[in-house]
Structure formats: structure tokens, C-alpha cells
Amino acid sequence: MKTDVLIIGGGPAGLNAAIETASRGIKTIIIEESYALGGQLKQQTQFFNNLPKQFDRQRGIHLMRTLIDRLSPLPVTCLLKHKMIGVYKDGRIGIANDTETFPIDAKKVIVTTGAAEETDLFPGWTLPGVMTVGAAQILINRERVLPGKNALIVGLNSFSAEVTKQLKACGINILGVIDKNVSVNDKKLVDGLEDKKIRVMVNTVIERATGAGEVEKVTINNDGKKEDLDIDLICIGKGLSPILEPLEILDCEFGFQAKLGGLVPKYYSTLGTSNPSVYVAGNAAGITCLGGILVTAEIAALNALKALGVLNDNEAKISSSFLWDELRSMESEESIETFIARVAHIKEFHEECELPLPASFHAILEGC
């Protein structure tokens, strides 16, 4: 198979990048290892307000349908239940499903693999009844199954807080949300949970979970004070980290930015990586809000189009400047630290490569 643009990952970033490239008449292929497009949007029933200007406030599952509907009439090939497994010596991308392996010859690659949930280890963490908050969200919103009756949530962040509220709305008794460290920036999350009569315990960790074949009891340590809770569900929400395997296979360089989720690929202001054929977007470029996921996808696609000669320099410059302003606004609303870390990451790579930042990017630096 041959294509102008290959997009690895069919979540919100991959869909939005494909809409941008294919709407210009560029042949585009999406590969997605799941049975359907949409990524985590498939089970996100909460409303999202902080979205790009072309999207109204809407639930995640409705946004998924909006993106797929926009993509449907465009020249895009979607390969579901396929994944990238390697790179041939001549640069073609190796793709596989359950029955065959074949190469795709792509001029440009945009990696939008998203993120994976971080777990937590404690005695008893392998017992049935221990799961990530994402798994619990899938059970209640997609499978319509209650994962338990009495729950403890481990980890405080925007995602775990949202799922906690969804679990409570489904009738699950939330005995508490615990976290070892809670910063001043988390006060809004704490207040939002306490308004729902959900107990939040800081400086608190799990010592052990016990039960006969499944979770029945958990012992927590709250700043030196131990407490036993009768529960049948522990949901772990320790945050997200970028999924990087395809970028490693594509020989991209990496750097560390704690505020972006840890190890992330090095990239320029174009979201192009150290591999001149590869761009990155969404959570794979650093953990961000849904609005940031969508906008980084547009930035990456825009610059891939420029590299392919579809857009001229002036058009790309104007569009890119607008998108970076929008990204700054959205990420700053969620957490200004995320955007500052992203800018620092880009600036460091430009300096490492002895490449000047675009003139339009300096205004963004001043805004930080």
C-alpha cells in the first residue's frame, strides 16, 4: 500500500489529523489496533467545554461521532484491528493484523498513539476488584456493568475525579479518594469532590488489600494513622504516560518533561520529530487536555501538508500561529504548567539542533 500520510492511532488526535490532511485531497491511511475508531471517547459520557472553536460543548461520545461523521466522506482508508510492528530497511512501515503482515509506503507519518494509565503497586494489587479508573469507566459507560458496590479511588487528578463522580452517579458508594501528594493546583478538584460529599484524604497510601479470591478489605495509612475499609473495588488513577513504542521503532529521539507525562519525543514547533518523516500529536506529544489533543493534531497535520508541498509557507505560517494561540489558551485554562513545559521542550530541541524558532513563536514565548 502507498499513501501520502499514515496516521498511527485512531483516537481523537488521529481523527482530527486525518480530517485536516484528507480534506485537502491528500491520500490518508489510519491504522487503529482497536475494533473501532474514537479511542477513549468511546466511553466518555462527560461534557467537554474547553474545545477548539469549531466544536460546540459536547459529550465525549458525541464528539467521537462528530469527528467520524466529518471523516466519512473524505479519502481516508481506516484499517481497524491493525497495528504497527516494525520498519523495513527501505523505510516502509510494517503493519499487522491477526492474519497477515504487510508494508505501507508513506511519505509522512503522524503518530497519535495516545497515553496509557499509570498503575500503583501494593500488596494485593492483583486481586480481582482492583482496576484502573479507565477500566471502571469502560464498564459503566460502555458495558453498562457496575464494577463494585463500595469503592476506594487511588490518585487525584482531573480524570480520576471525573470518573469518581460518574461512579457515584451510578450508585456506587465512594468511601474516599486518596493521594500521597496533593498540590495547591488540585484544590479545585478537592472542592469539586467534597461538594459531592466525597471524602478526600491527602498524605494517604494503601498498605494492603486483602480478600478471599477478590478484594474485600483495604488498609490505608493516613499520615501514620491506619484505617481498615470494607470495599470490593479499588480504582487506580495515578495519571497517564505517553505511548511511545511506534516512535521508538521509528528511531525518534526522546527527552524528559515531567509535566508532559515523563519521557516524550523531542519535537520542533512544527511537531516534527528528529525523524524528518515523522510528526507527533495528542497525548503522545505530552499529556494534555482534550482540546490540546485536537489542536496538536491540526498543527502536526498542517506542517505535514506544508512538507508535502500542499500548503505554501505563508498559509502554513498564518494557520500555525492561530493554532498555537488556541493551544496556549486551552492548555493554560487546564494547567499553565503543561503549556510552559511544552514550550520549554520545543525550545530546548531547537537549541540542540541549532535551529532558530519561527518569528511567530516568539510571541508565544512572551505570553508564557
What topology does this entry show?
Blueprint: E1 2-8, H1 12-22, E2 28-32, E3 47-48, E4 58-59, H2 60-71, E5 76-80, E6 83-87, E7 93-96, E8 101-111, E9 115-117, E10 130-132, H3 133-141, E11 150-154, H4 158-169, E12 173-179, H5 187-195, E13 200-202, E14 204-210, E15 217-222, E16 225-230, E17 233-236, E18 240-242, H6 245-249, E19 254-257, E20 262-265, E21 278-280, H7 290-307, H8 313-352, H9 359-367
Parallel strand pairs: 1-2, 1-8, 2-5, 8-21, 10-17, 11-12, 11-17, 12-13
Antiparallel strand pairs: 3-4, 6-7, 7-8, 9-18, 14-15, 15-16, 19-20
Helix pairs in contact: 1-2, 1-7, 3-4, 4-5, 7-8, 8-9
The total number of structural domains is: 2
The percentage of residues in β strands lies in 25-35%
- Residue-averaged pLDDT, rounded? 93
* Contiguous runs where pLDDT drops below 50 for at least 5 residues: none
Q: What is the third-level CATH name, the topology of the largest domain?
A: FAD/NAD(P)-binding domain
**From N to C, what is the helix and strand string?**
EHEEEHEEEEEEHEHEHEEEEEEHEEEHHH
Q: Indicate the percent of residues in helices.
A: 25-40%
Query: Rough shape?
Result: globular
Write the CATH architecture name of the largest domain: 3-Layer(bba) Sandwich
Total number of helical segments?
9
What does this structure look like?
This protein has helices at 12-22, 60-71, 133-141, 158-169, 187-195, 245-249, 290-307, 313-352, 359-367, and strands at 2-8, 28-32, 47-48, 58-59, 76-80, 83-87, 93-96, 101-111, 115-117, 130-132, 150-154, 173-179, 200-202, 204-210, 217-222, 225-230, 233-236, 240-242, 254-257, 262-265, 278-280. The chain has 368 residues and is α/β, with parallel strands linked by helices. It has 2 domains: 2-116 and 240-367, FAD/NAD(P)-binding domain, CATH 3.50.50.60; 119-236, FAD/NAD(P)-binding domain, CATH 3.50.50. The strands form 6 sheets. Strands 1, 2, 5, 6, 7, 8 and 21 form a 7-stranded mixed beta sheet that branches. Helix 1 (12-22) packs parallel to helix 2, helix 3 runs parallel beside helix 4 (158-169) and helix 8 packs across helix 9 (359-367). The longest helix has 40 residues, at 313-352. It starts with a strand and ends with a helix.
